[in-house]
Amino acid sequence: MKNETLVVIPAYNEEQTIGEIIRRTLPYADVCVVNDASRDATESIVKSFEGVVCLNHPRNMHIPRTLMDGMQYALSKDYRYIVTMDAGLTHKPEELPRFLQCPDCDLVLGVRTERKNVPLYRRTISLIATFLLGLSLKPWGSNLPQPEFRDVTSGYRRYSREAVKLLLSRPLKAKAFDFHMEALMIVYRNGYSIKEVPISYEFSNSSFNYRVLLRGIRMYLDIAFTRRK
C-alpha cells in the first residue's frame, strides 16, 4: 500500500549526503528527489534506490521551482501530504513522525527548538525575520487570527494537498529561500490551518549569502506593504 506522504528533497551537488538522507527517510514515507542540475553523482546515487523518484532539471532553477516541481509530482500521484526536507542532513528524518502524527491541517511548520553549530549571525537573522514577519503577515483590517509563529524560515514542513494546490495557483515572486516566507504568507492569508512541531537543526554547508539576504528583505517588504494572498 502506497504511503499517503511524499517527502520532497531538493538537491544540488549533494553526493556526500543524499544517499544517507534517502536511507533514513524511506522507513517513514515515499521519497522524491528533485535534482537541480547537479554536476556531481547526485542523480546516479538517487537512481540506485528502488522506488525513489528522481526529477531532473536541465539547468539550475533554485529552491522555489525545485520544490514546486516536487509538489506538482505529488499531486499527480494523489499524495495527501507533502513534506519538504533539506538534502544536507540539517533536518533529521527520524523526526518525520512529528509531522506525520500531527492532526490534520494545511501546513505544519518545523520549529527549530534545538540548534547545533548554527552561527550567531544565522540565528539572529532567523529571529529578526520571524519577529518582522509576525508583524506584517496579517493585513490591516483583516479578520484573520493574529499570527504567533515561532519560526517562519524553517524549510522542514508538511503541506496538505489543498495548500499545495493553492501555492501552485499563485504567481510566486520568490527566487531563493524567501520561498518559505512567501508560502507561509499565502497559506496564512487564505485562512488555511497552520500548526507547529518542534524539530532539531544541525548547521552544515549553506548557500546563504548577501543576495539571498537581499531577496529575503525584498520579500518581507512585499508582504508588509501589500495585501497579496
Mean pLDDT over the full residue set:
94
Largest sheet: 7 strands, mixed
Q: What proportion of the residues is helical, as a percent range?
A: 25-40%
CATH top level label: Alpha Beta
Please specify the SSE layout and strand pairing:
Layout: E1 5-11, H1 18-25, E2 30-35, H2 42-47, E3 53-56, H3 62-76, E4 81-84, H4 96-100, E5 107-116, H5 120-136, E6 157-160, H6 161-168, H7 179-189, E7 194-202, H8 210-225
Parallel strand pairs: 1-2, 1-4, 2-3, 5-7
Antiparallel strand pairs: 4-6, 5-6
Helix pairs in contact: 3-6, 5-8
Structure description:
- The chain starts with a strand and ends with a helix.
- It has a 7-stranded mixed sheet with strand order 3-2-1-4-6-5-7, sandwiched between helices.
- It has helices at 18-25, 42-47, 62-76, 96-100, 120-136, 161-168, 179-189, 210-225; strands spanning 5-11, 30-35, 53-56, 81-84, 107-116, 157-160, 194-202.
- The protein has one domain (5-225): Spore Coat Polysaccharide Biosynthesis Protein SpsA, Chain A (Alpha-Beta Complex).
- It has 8 helices and 7 strands.
- Helix 2 links the parallel strand 2 (30-35) and strand 3 (53-56).
- The protein is 38% helix and 19% strand.
- It is an alpha/beta fold and 229 residues long.
